[in-house]
Structure prediction request, 259 residues.
Amino acid sequence: MKLKVVLDRVVCRDTEDIVGADEFYVSGVVATNFGAQPVLTKPMDIKEGQDLAFDAKQRVVFEGELPESGNLVINLNAWDSDFGKDWEEKGYHKAVKSIGDKLAERAPEALDAIRTAGKAPTADSTAPVGADKAPAVGTEKASAATGKAPVVGEKAAPATTAKTAAAAVSGKTPADDADARMAMDIAKVVVDIVDKVLTSVVKGADPDDLLGTLSIDIPVTEIGREPRVMPKVWGFKQGGGAGISTWDYDVHYSIHVEP
Prediction:
C-alpha cells in the first residue's frame, strides 16, 4: 500500500501583516520508518477572508510505501515571509537546492547513527520540496548522490532490566519502542537540515514570522491498510493586544492510503 500526505488548502481569517497580504509558506518534514521527505512550499500571497489551494506541484509533501509498523511523523511550521520578492524569486530555489545538497551529504552518516531493533527497510519514494526534488532520507535516492547506502544500524541498543520488566507487563518489547521512535529520529535529522538552510538562505536579512507549528506522531496501525482519505485541519491563531500582531489560519491537509 502507498501512503501520501497532501497539503490541500489554507484558509485565512486574519493576516499577521497589518496592511496587505501575508506571504504564507510551510516548511518541515514528513517521515515514516522507510524514510523522510523535507517540505518547503513557495510563499503565496493570501489576504483576510481568502481560501486558497496550495500549488498543484507542491501539494504532495510525502509519498511512499506504507510500512507495516512504526509511526507516521508530521512536523510542520507555518510562516509569514518578511523577505519579500528576493525570497520569493531567488531564495526559494536557493533553499531547495541547499536542502537537497545537505541531505545528500549528511543522510548516510546521520542515519547510521540511528539504532533500531532491526535493519531499516528502504522504499522507493520521491521527496518533493515545492516544485523541485531533493533526496529522500532513508531511501536509495538519498544514497545515489553519495554512493553510500544510508543503512540504519542493524543492532539494537541493549535493553535495561527495568525496561525488560516493563515490557513483560505491557506486552511491548524494547524493539517495539525502538521501532516507534525510528520515524521521529529520522524526522529530527531532516528538520534540523531544513531549519538551518532556511536560516542561512531566507531569514538572515529579516527573520520570518512563525505563525504555527504542527507536530503529530501516529502509529501506522491506526492509519490502517484499507484505501481511504483522512482529512485533517491544522488550525493556529494568535490574539493580540497593544502592539502585538494577530493572525488566524486553518491549513487543510489529508492522509491518503492508496493501493
